[in-house]
Amino acid sequence: xxxxxxxxxxxxxxxxxxxxxxxxxxxxxxxxxxxxxxxxxxxxxxxxxxxxxxxxxxxxxxxxxxxxxxxxxxxxxxxxxxxxxxxxxxxxxxxxxxxxxxxxxxxxxxxxxxxxxxxxxxxxxxxxxxxxxxxxxxxxxxxxxxxxxxxxxxxxxxxxxxxxxxxxxxxxxxxxxxxxxxxxxxxxxxxxxxxxxxxxxxxxxxxxxxxxxxxxxxxxxxxxxxxxxxxxxxxxxxxxxxxxxxxxxxxxxxxxxxxxxxxxxxxxxxxxxxxxxxxxxxxxxxxxxxxxxxxxxxxxxxxxxxxxxxxxxxxxxxxxxxxxxxxxxxxxxxxx
Length: 336
Hints:
By secondary structure, the chain is of the alpha/beta class.
């Protein structure tokens, strides 16, 4: 396939659709040619901002032969139906995380795309950041030795900044609250670096924000190699903050938003600062989507991977409710 820009339609108009569209505008691989949402005002505003056609319906967008892919930012509970329609029309889909609200729907999304031979790429941009790529490379070169433990935190201050009418902040629209909405990013990164999670212990509470969903949560994750990770997510902290430490028998790495990346080797007794290239992670995930459409290669994060990530979160939700350790396979089998 040529290196001409891949023409896409954007489905669902909200703040995240603009984030992705801005990422597209910073790159050279994708062109937005069409958009649709049920709100006429929203789609007209989006079309004017990004100089694209405001389709009268999703069906019109899918029938447009110039549209080579769909950027889907609709609510979680309609991901299956909207992705099925795209797959039946032969249109590749970039779907923002989480893949769905239940594992059964996530697997159905992955299956329907596989059935129709359609590319499905999930939006997990944080694994593409330079510090995590550096750590992954060091793990691949066996510099960490045996991986034994990790700790991570993803936090934001959302007090006074949420719209309770939005599905993103309602228990029905985002079951699991903060851990499903943003914690899942670091579930992806932890599985990317440490290996698959096999069992989960979870706790959550609602401490600061209004509404009906947890704003603080903690997961203790056991990986298939026996390593233990601790992940916390919060919408109730004083500031935005991201942190991840990866511990190996021979080397450990330490990343945080304000201090950057460091590593320390066994017996040295000191840490070393690591300078990594700044990555436009939103642009990078979308550029990969375009490249996959052109080349036919598989994306880093497909529907089956995303369904496993979701199962980890849902295991944590069940654990918090029932006060016990929950096997990820238990959730995968139940489709919860």
